Amino acid sequence: MLSGPPVSSALSADQLLDQFLGASVRQRRGLLPSLIDRRQEWRPLVEERLRDCDPEGDDWGPGALIQLLLDDDDALSQAFLARHPVGWLRAPSGQGLDHGPLQRQLMQQHFEAADRMTSETLRRLAGAEAVRRGYVYYSEVEGISGTDLVSLDRLWSVYSRGRFGFSVQSRLLLAQGGRWERLWPRLGWKQEGVWTRYPSAFTWSIDAPEGHMPLINQLRGVRLMDALLAHPALKARVEG
Fold this sequence. Notes:
By secondary structure, the chain is an all-alpha fold.
């Protein structure tokens, strides 16, 4: 009789990491509970295992391991942060910005701070006038560096188990025929003429609905979000 893959409880810590990083997305999600339960066994192995992972890629497996490593504020997590002061993932900028602070927030699952930092970054990318007025015009999106938008999207995706980010929101919107009114409930956003960050209407957690973050707070409808998702760099990620 042919046997299936070994159950996670029978695996060594090394084997569990191998199975997790080599699994399909569906299998990986199924392994997460065992990974969480046994994290004290494999946490000392993370730094070495990351050497075999691509810091320029989109794989969320390493991001999940990093977040679980940092769940405990101990010598292991402090040593990791000291070795990676701007984060493990390479997030280049075409406009000379440092995405390290955003990555640090996402690595530690400080999603509300990361969301606000993302909005601030978009204003800086759009230019001095956007910074001065406090929001981005949809017409300014075309001039934003595609390198930076891709870096922002990758950071959100890698540190959310592939659940958050602009490209995730774009795929969900396409699945709803481009109709935002159909997408609001699925994203878990409260829509009352404006998009809000009220605590009762938003969930700053990895368990939030798929596509829940980042929130692009717009007082003038969805034109900015449409412009962002139509940016050639983000469209290429969705279509690629």
